[in-house]
Amino acid sequence: MITLTVNGERVTREVEPRRHLIDFLRLDLGLTGSHAGCEHGVCGACTVRLDGEIVRGCLVLAASLDGADVVTIEGLSDSGEVADLQANFVARNAAQCGFCTPGMIMTAADLLAHEREAGRGTPSRAEIREHLSGNYCRCTGYQAIVDAVEDTLKARHPVADLGRGTAPAPRSSEATR
Amino acid sequence: MNEITPASIGLSREDLPNSYIGRSVPRPNAPKLVQGRATYTDDVVLPRMLHAAFLRSPYAHARILSVDSSAARQVPGVVRVFTGADLAEVCDPWVATLDHLKGMKSAPQHPLPLTRATWQGEPIVAVVADTRAAAEDGVAALQVEFEPLPAQTDMETALAAGAVIIHPELGDNLVFTRTAETGDIAGAFAQAHKVVEARFVTGRHTGVTLEPRSIIADYNRADGTLTVHHSTQAPHMMQGVFAKQLRLAEGDVRVICKDVGGSFGIKVHVYPDEVAVAAMARILGRPVKFIADRFEAFASDIHARDHRITARLAVDAEGRVLAFDVDDLTGIGPYSVYPRTSAMEGNQVVNLCGGPYDFKNYRCTTTVVLQNKAPTCQYRAVGHPIATAVTEGLMDLAAEALGMDPIEIRRRNLIRDDAYPFTSPAGMRFEGLSHHASLAKLLEMVPVERIRADQAEARARGVYRGLGFAAFIELTNPSPFMYGIGGARISAQDGCTVRMDPDGSIVASSGVTEQGQGTEAILAQIVAHGVGVAVNRVKIITGDTQTTPYGGGTWACRGAGIGGEAALQSAIALKQQILEVAGAMLQATPESLDIAMGSITDKATGAERMTLHELGRIVYFRGDTLPRDLQRELVQTRHFITKEYPFAFTNGIQASWVEVDPATGLVKLLEHWCVEDCGRVINPMLVDEQVRGGIVQGIGGALYENCIYDEQGNLLTTTLADYLVPMSAEMPEMHVGHVETPTRESLLGAKGAGEAGTAGAPGAIMNAINDALRPLKARVHEQPFTPERILRALGAIA
Ligand code: FES
Ligand code: FES
Predict the structure, then answer these.
(1) How would DSSP label each residue in B162-229?
(2) From the candidates A47, A100, A142, which should be mutated to test the interface with B, based on the most B CB atoms within 10 A?
(3) How many Å lie between the alpha carbon of A77 and the closest alpha carbon of chain B?
(4) pLDDT exceeds 50 at position A162
(5) Those residues with Cβ within 8 angstroms of residue A130's Cβ, 6 or more apart along the chain or in another chain
(6) CA–centroid distance, residue B693 to ligand 2 (Å)
(7) Which of B262, B346, B630, B680 is the most buried (most CB within 10 A)?
(8) ipTM of the complex
């Protein structure tokens, strides 16, 4: 029997020792926003926040989570913490099939939450790509995702500390109509 | 009514108040995706639902001697164990051949085999239990005795004497062969100024949809209906397949696909494990769910692009192409995949080689053979990246042999933009392509001079960079000539039903489907444009065979071109019907009225006469006030099929800028460009990211992705740690440009865009790598271009 907080709600459940967090969320709690893409820790589709840090839900055993604080994409959406990021994902078409997207948003939210730690400036596009590179997207070319994250960072910090690296400008279509 | 032309409905203008064609409208279904509120098949839970797991063959080829399920049936939660024989009682086998592919043959395939396993990963026995975990425990407790048989894994020896004949009743392992030949090949090569030749290999790879294949089948014994929730691209096709194989009426089968987590052609085929799930639900009278795990996906999703090609090109002294001579060999696994067949990829290589160029003499042969590996079939841009890499690889070799610039040799040979209609030596009919305009557009985007200067400067420092180009053609909007004439029940037409509800909002249901490419968004744009309402007043329904008009679904880039045109036609018909009714209400002729942003307006002055909301109120609730005989159906259906051309060909060109490290063999992608012509662009933002996604899948095939088997036919790449897919950090910035040559087959003028990126990227990258390696006198033509292969080409390793 474990008791933990999921998206701000206290839940108590009996779990099998072999139950992974992703299955606990999806099957026991009906929180289907987090997805299982590989179940071996590579694709990032199952990314959720555990005690403030992002983890892979397919690698964490639910039984170890007594007293933990878990936030899933549903909780993140409801709290409004990343409403701007989500709006930019929509505006940039940074999601196609959307299967990777909740994990992508969780990972990008982590970057947004931590990016200015230790006096560092706004991450460059290369750093955004690096931070997201544990999250596979099979549909987009990643570029729109990087655009959406970059837009969010810039809008949140419109000050002149943009870019520790150089951010190449070409982002939108070169369409000529 | 007036004659309807693209101009009369504003398709060539962007300034109409409700023109949504050509605008980057955000997708209406995107918010649910970013909030994790989509409904993929695995998210669906039905009462009394059971879960299936499969024992899969550990051998590439083996006889099944016995199945002992007694221990498995004792596992808590296990409900039933099914063998091939159990399912054969309710489910007929299928044979995947097409009549128009002359001489094609394949063996009957059952959902679970009766006597023999023919590839590692083939589903052999199914266990159904009340949870997936219990079903897997049941599988672990199964005792199946196999007698391993010699496996035929190498395609090169599949037709040789002494080869293992995979299906003895077929006589040999030859599935299909076809040669297209025009002109005088021997003469052209004899009089050539230069002849270049190479052996190309494309690596067997697979789609890796992030959402694995997923299905829930639910048979209701009370009314004899089968409802299938399915992650598929072609719900109507699957409805027909389940009905036929399980001996049900088509009307008793309903296929629903809500959100689909990627498809890329992987989810347009009939998989034995999925048919098995339907058969088990039929027997049990309960819902059965099966979600493939990643291991199962690698071992049983279709693979593709396992080709070896030797090819020659003859050019004259001016660099003009005299002849292509291409010999393609491909291994497709033990069965041709139903119902599209696994011969189509090789057939496409024959159709597409040399495609962008104007030349006379052509010979191309494809030979399609069986082997004991996972079946291959259609994956995004079927055959295109293979044909493009061969064609463009040879063009670069010819340019090098002539000392000519790779851009110049292409400029001299690309089919002229005023040469259409044009029939290619392979027999493909092109309505209108724009190779030269696309090349010109690309050269506006790619700073060639700056790149060449940078390249020279870098070489001096021992840094090897290269620029590569690849022109391509792309087959879209397929007609019945693709599958229908071969006897396959795959619809080339599509339908759309558009209706107006009492509040003036519009609902459109379409046979094409959404897998993330934005089908629903473009359909909403088209319908909003056609009727004359705001786009947020349009609701689109797709993915349910019971509520949408019959159609082909999504494959071969037909969503916008076929489904979109059906939507436009039905929207225009609805608009005309609304104007008839409005004319009666307003004492005006329908011709004098228009609809703009949800209101009936006077066409001449633009003045609002009445809202659609008010019209809806009267039609639905106060019909007594309307003329007795007035037709008042505010719902219209239209179907569309292309008539003049078997396919709408599109074209484009890509450029890739890379850096190769000769010490490690690693390729770094610096920048990538693509110009494509998909006809009318409905939503530029969606097309751009669709093209970029396609490029990344092409990059995957060129650099990383490979399904690797050992000599015994054991698949070695069964996790995402072994099988590499592109990640964000390695991907370059990608620039997309468009040229628009609308097809005249439809009002809308849209052709497909989804395969363009994948079609051209591998060829462009190959040429860029070889450009980088040129001073080192090394070349690679075997995909994926791994560090090992590059180091081998450099002579750095043996
Ligand atoms: S499902 Fe957890 S990383 Fe892929
Ligand atoms: S949007 Fe499909 S996997 Fe990312």
Answers:
(1) T---SSGGGSSSEEEEEEEEES-HHHHHHT-SEEEEEEEEE--EE---SSPPEEEEEEETTTTEEEEE
(2) A142
(3) 6
(4) no
(5) B728, B729
(6) 9
(7) B346
(8) 0.96
